Amino acid sequence: MLFFSSTNPIPVDAPFARMLAGRFDLPFVPGVPPISDNSTKAVTPEIVQAAQVLSLDSDDPEFVARRVRHLAQILRSSRFAARVNWRSYLEQLDNAAPIFDEPDRLTVEAITPGLTYNLLKTGEPDPYKNFWRVSVDGIYPNLKFSVNGSLQAQFSSTMSNTAVGTSGYSVSFKCSASNGDPVSLVGYIRTPYSGDCMPIYNAIKTKSDLVAALTYNNSEYADTIAQGVAIEDAIAAFILAVNDF
Questions:
Q1: Please, what sign has the CA dihedral across residues 62, 66, 69, 71?
Q2: Do both 185 and 200 map to the same domain?
Q3: Do 127 and 61 fall within a single domain?
Q4: Is the peptide bond before 141 cis (omega within 30 degrees of 0)?
Q5: C-alpha 22 chain-centroid distance
Q6: Mean pLDDT of 193-217
Q7: pLDDT tens digits, residue range 3-53?
Q8: Of these four, 14, 103, 126, 161, which has the most CB atoms within 10 Å of its CB?
């Protein structure tokens, strides 16, 4: 996570920065808010639970970044948009690189000549992950295939279709290297973000005690969440309640 020094008491993308303040495992991915070292609000159990409700506790930084961007879009399109009083770079980021237009493929960053692959769509990706690191390494004929650093298979000249984590893809390899040759591949699969407002709202509604705690001093937010007439407004009210808590 990216930290910075500031005299401004309001963090960049304040509610998201607060919900992610304890996620020191997160690298900086565009969409993950930078954390100001002057933040004075404590990360309470309610804030931790709010992050869980919004699926910001995913172990995939790419998903977390895109969920933050989606939630910020929802907030900007709600009737509460004018209440955003924090600095943000997310709208400019969305204009430059829309999260819903990202390609769905295996991107190879480096590959040894003689190693070929075939990618096959075999199912639907995990909805709470968007990124899987793929690698092949070894000295022929002893090769290893790994996903996110975890060994998935060992092979020599061929590897049959093997799942790439929970990406919804399988991959196969053929290798024509000579004995003793080093072989490697480095790449990743990034799937498009596919978040939907209704599951987010339903997750919020199931946490009535949390909603009551966060909206204790704001009946407008409480009523908006309870009625759910406009889903975007209800989600926005929840995010603003987190910010005010």
A1: negative
A2: no
A3: no
A4: yes
A5: 16
A6: 93
A7: 555 566 667 788 999 899 877 778 888 888 877 665 556 678 999 999 999
A8: 14
